[in-house]
Amino acid sequence: MFYGLALVFAATLCAAQPSPEELAPLLAGLEAQPAAIERRVPLSTNDPTIAPLIDLQVFAPPAVPKQGTSCTVILLNHTFGDGSFNAPAIVAYVPPTDASCGEVGNWATISMNLSVYSIGTQYDRLGAIYLSHSEIWRTSSAEPTKTGTIWNTIKDVTHFTPLFAKPGDLMMDFSNIIAPDLLLDGVFDVILSATFYVPTEQFPAAISSDTIIPLSNLSPTLPNFFTISDDIGGITNVTLPSSAVEAYIEIFCSGNSAEEFWYLNTPDEFVQDFPESTGVIGKGSFREIQVLVDDKLAGVVWPYAVIYTGGITPSNWRPLTSYGAYDQPTYWVDVTPFIPILLDEQTTHTVTLRVVGQGLTAPSFNSDWFVSGSIHVRTGTSKTTGKITSYNAPALKISTTGGSTPGNTTVWTKVVAHRELDIESELLTSEGKKTVSFSQSLDYVNTAQYADAGWIQWGQQSTVGTTVAKHQGKQVLRDAFSYPLSVFSNYSLYEEQFGGYGSEINQTHIRALQPPIGPYRAIQSIQHARGQIGMDDWPGLRHAINGTGATEQTFAYVDGRGESYFRDVAAKNDGWVRDAVWGTLRDANPPVPRNQIFGPGGGPGFRRMVGRGMR
Ligand SMILES: *[C@@H]1O[C@H](CO)[C@@H](O)[C@H](O)[C@H]1NC(C)=O
Ligand SMILES: *[C@@H]1O[C@H](CO)[C@@H](O)[C@H](O)[C@H]1NC(C)=O
Ligand SMILES: *[C@@H]1O[C@H](CO)[C@@H](O)[C@H](O)[C@H]1NC(C)=O
Ligand SMILES: *[C@@H]1O[C@H](CO)[C@@H](O)[C@H](O)[C@H]1NC(C)=O
Ligand SMILES: *[C@@H]1O[C@H](CO)[C@@H](O)[C@H](O)[C@H]1NC(C)=O
Ligand SMILES: *[C@@H]1O[C@H](CO)[C@@H](O)[C@H](O)[C@H]1NC(C)=O
Ligand SMILES: *[C@@H]1O[C@H](CO)[C@@H](O)[C@H](O)[C@H]1NC(C)=O
C-alpha cells in the first residue's frame, strides 16, 4: 500500500559538499597517524572505573600565540544543584585589567574553558552561556558516574571580542533537577574561565566586528534563548548603527523535549499507522531555522543533529560523547544585503528567528526549540544607503512519501527537501559602492523504516548544502557541509520487566567553514556507536541496571592558519579503549591519561543509570 503524497523531485545531492580539495588535507592528516602514539600499553584490569572518569566531546582547541603573554580569569564558579532549573547563575563581567591580559579589546585569541564535575545519577541537561544577553556557548552535560565524572571543553570565543571588551552580565543556564525520589542526585560543579592572549608579531590581534546585537529575549533573570513552540518564532526589535557596512547573524539552535530527536519524528501522514502506545512522535523529520528581517526571509539553517549523552541509548555516550554535545555547532547568515531595509528610518525593524517543521497542522513542529543568536556588525564612518537589487527566495520544495505492508507490520517513509536562496543588494557605504550577495543551496533526504508497531526504527538522514556570501566579489562567508546520520533503535523489549533497548548509530559531521569573522576551518568527525541497556522494574520507577556501549570516532581539523588536530579514539563500557591524538594543536588537548585506558575490552560496564534522554 502506498501513500504518494506529494511530487517527488530530483534532488542534486552531490554539488554542495566540501570540495575534494578541502577534504584532502583532512584525509591526508588522518592517514598520517604517527606510529609512536599508537603503541599504547592497555591496562588489563578488572578494576572499577578510574575516578574521576574523564568524559569528553572531541574538539580542536583554539589556536593561540606560541609566544607572548596571556591571563586567565575565572568567570564563574557555581554549583548547579537543587533549584537551578530555569534559574541561571548571573555574575557581573568586567574586562580584565591586569597587564598580562594586554590591551582591552585588542586580543589575539580569547578562549573559554568550561570545566564540569559531577558525581551521582543525572539525566543529560542542557546548558547555555550568555554574555550581555548574546549566547556564546550551547552545551549539555554528561550522565555522571557514581564515582565522579569530569569534563573540560575549550572553545574559541574571539569573535565575541566586542562583548568581552566592555562590562556586562555573564549568565549561565544549566537547568538541573535534583529529585531524591527519582534518585537524581548529580549536581554540576562548574568552573568557567576565559584566557586572553596578547597579540604577537606572528599572531596579530584578531579582527572582529564593532558591535554585537543580541537576538534573544533579553531577560535579566531567565535563560535568554527563545523557547519556540509556535510558527511565529522569536522576535527582536533591532536598531542597527547607521554606518553599518557588514552585518552577520550567528545562530544557536537545538530541539528539546518532543523535538530532541526531531530527525526521527514521523510524518503526520503516517502516525496513524502505529498504535498510540508506541508513542511515535509526529510532525515529520524536516526542520528549518529561518532568519527573517521585517518578515522577509533572509537565510536559513538546516541544523546538524546533536545527540546528547542520554540520547537514544545513554551507554553509547559515556565517556565519549557525540560530536557537538558539549559545544554545539553554530551557523551564520549574512544579512548585509538587508542593511538598507534595517536602516530605513520610516519604520521600526525586527529580526525573527523561526522554526519550520512539516506538521500538517499548526504549529508545524512539536514543543519546543531553543533558538537565539546575535548580529555582528562592522561599522564605517558615514550613513549606509542602498537597495536590494535581486531577491530570489522560491518556496521550500518538500515531498513526503511512504507506505506500509498489510496490518502496518512494517512502515516506511521518505522526506525530500530542497531550498535555494539568492539575494543581492547595492550598498553605498563610507568604503564606497558595494555589491553584496548571499546565497544558499541545500538538500535533504530522510528515510525511515519501522517494524514491530514502531518499537523498531531505522532512520537515515542526509543534509548537505553550501552557503556563500560575497561582498564586492570577495567571499566573506562560505559554509559547505554534509551531515549524514543513520540510527537503528530497538525498543522491542521496552515494556517488559528486565527488558531493555538498544541502538546503533553512525553520524558524520563534515564541514568546510569560512566564517565571516575568524579563520577558515575544515572539520570531519565520523562516529559509530552501539549499545544496549538492561532495565529492572515495570511499570513504575525504572532504572537501567546494566548495559553495554561502544563508540569509535575519527576526527580531523585543519584551519587557515596551518594548524591541525587529529584524533582516533574509542570507548567502551565506561572505559577508554584507545586514544591517539596528533597535529599541531595536540598539546592543547592531549589524549586521556594512560591510567584511564582499559584496552580493547573496555571498562567495567554500566550498573546504575536512568533511562532515555530528556532535558
Ligand atoms: C570555587 O569555589 C569553591 C567553593 O567556594 C572553592 O573551594 C574553589 O577553590 C573555587 N575554585 C576556583 C577555581 O576558584
Ligand atoms: C580548564 O579548567 C579546569 C578547571 O579549572 C582546569 O583543571 C583545566 O586545566 C583547564 N584546562 C585548560 C586547558 O586550561
Ligand atoms: C518591539 O516594538 C514594538 C513596537 O514597535 C513593541 O510593541 C514591542 O513591545 C517591542 N518588543 C520588545 C521586546 O521590546
Ligand atoms: C494501519 O494504518 C492505517 C492508516 O494509517 C490505519 O487506518 C489502520 O488502523 C492501521 N492498521 C493497524 C492494524 O494498525
Ligand atoms: C554503521 O556503519 C557500520 C560500518 O560501516 C555498518 O556496519 C553499520 O551497519 C552501520 N549502522 C547503521 C545503523 O547505520
Ligand atoms: C530487537 O531486540 C530484540 C531483543 O533483544 C531482539 O530479539 C530482536 O532480534 C531485535 N530486532 C532487531 C531487528 O534487531
Ligand atoms: C542485566 O540484568 C538482567 C537482570 O538481572 C539479566 O537478566 C541480564 O542478563 C543482564 N544483562 C547483561 C548484559 O548483563
From TrEMBL:
The Peptide N-acetyl-beta-D-glucosaminyl asparaginase amidase A N-terminal domain extends over 65-392
Q: Which InterPro entries match?
A: PNGase_A (IPR021102), PNGaseA_N (IPR056948)
Q: Does the keyword rRNA-binding apply?
A: no
**Per UniProt, which keywords does this protein have?**
Signal
The leader peptide range reads 1-16
Is Signal given among the entry's keywords? yes
Q: What is this protein called?
A: Peptide N-acetyl-beta-D-glucosaminyl asparaginase amidase A-domain-containing protein
